[in-house]
Amino acid sequence: ILGRGTFAVVRLGVDLMTCERLACKIMDEAHLRLPKGMGNTAGDMASGTDQEINILRTVNHPNIIRIRAIIHQKDLLIIIMTKIDGGELFDYIVQRGSLPEHEAKFFFYQLLRAIEYLHTRNISHRDLKPENLLLEKRTPLFVGDFGMAKILNGSLARMQTTCGTVSYLAPEVLDNAVAGYSKNVDLWAAGCILYTMLGGCLPFGNDDRESILRKRMASFTFEYRTFKDVSSEAKDLITALLQPDPDKRPNIEQTMCHPWIASQH
After folding, report:
1. Residues 6+ positions from 55 with CB-CB distance below 8 Å
2. What is the mean pLDDT of the chain?
3. Active-site annotation holds for 229
4. Is there a contact between 77 and 7 (Cβ–Cβ < 8 Å)?
5. Active-site residue, selected from the candidate residues 50, 127, 145, 236
6. What is the C-alpha to C-alpha distance for residues 95 and 148, in angstroms, rounded to an integer?
7. Residue 74 labelled as part of a binding site
8. Which CATH number belongs to the domain containing residue 63 in this structure?
9. Residues 139, 33: one domain?
10. Strand bridging mode 21-28 / 150-151
11. Higher-confidence residue: 70 or 41?
């Protein structure tokens, strides 16, 4: 078993023709057929699974996990994907405490390339975090787990559903009742990831109580010793991405042009 969630288990598989090792995400279709509001969030999970499959079938990018096949077997839905052997970015950070700036930039640039590809196609991931970024020796970073992802009707389309991981949620996701939010919530999450890589901790802590998180979102600090040798350009980019006002936060094109990132090209 490679991993386990509420509605799915991921097992190791092997292609008998090529001997390639694969990741097989196995879900019980009986749960996925339940209407919304029944069986916890099974109906929502079914919708998310359909969306995940549709997205992974259409995307083709060196920094995004590849779907190899979809199999319906008895009451099971099996999504077969490329297996990434290097583990999660989360574990990589935990093992090292924090990452040197040049390495963080290397990983972050690849994440931005994937976001740029998705946003150009009006796809928002909505659950970017180190646990969903997988590492590999040949192509060092892959974006995975598109269960929360959304295909938008246009570049200006808004979303309403509150979803994602609390520590990486943009303020407008928590306050989306009226105006909704755009795909640029992915840039807020990217800012949290960059901060975590360089600082070895989350910018706003890991308290999952929304009231506490909202208060902390107003400010964060670079006073930890891990930021002592981090460049002012890196800190400037983090500050821009963690701008609480989404209208003042840079989009992916502007982020790619930031001096700290432009030097990576």
Report:
1. 123, 146, 149, 151
2. 87
3. no
4. no
5. 127
6. 27
7. no
8. 3.30.200.20
9. no
10. unpaired
11. 70
